Amino acid sequence: MTIDLDALDASIAEGEKKNFFVAPIVKDLIAELREARKERAAVVAWLREVAPNAPTRRGADELAWCANAIERGEHRHKEEE
């Protein structure tokens, strides 16, 4: 499941127009989630960049597999159980 941060921001903004209070920590958490997603994307891009330079074809394939798995969120499946 992916949280739609843009929709969440829009919902908060709509609530604030109606004078609903949103704790500042909520906005901080959204900002941190955005940053974490950027970092994950950067790691995936780096893995894909270095994969062709791996010393072996198998190494290149494993780096590409890791990039794909991270992008799909498979590295988080253990946490969710």
Secondary structure blueprint with pairings:
Layout: H1 5-17, H2 24-50, H3 57-72, H4 77-80
Structural overview:
The chain has 81 residues and is an all-alpha fold. It has one domain (5-80). 74% of the residues lie in helices and 0% in strands. It contains four helices and no strands. Helix 2 runs antiparallel to helix 3 (57-72). It starts with a helix and ends with a helix.
Order of helices and strands: HHHH
The helix count comes to 4
Secondary structural class: mainly alpha
| Share of residues in helices | over 70%
Give the overall silhouette. rod-shaped
Please state the CA-atom Rg, rounded to the nearest Å: 18 Å
**Overall pLDDT:** 91
The largest sheet is: none
Strand content: under 5%
Record keyword descriptors for this entry.
mainly alpha, rod-shaped, about 80 residues
Summarize the structure.
By secondary structure, this protein is mostly helical. The chain is 74% helix and 0% strand.
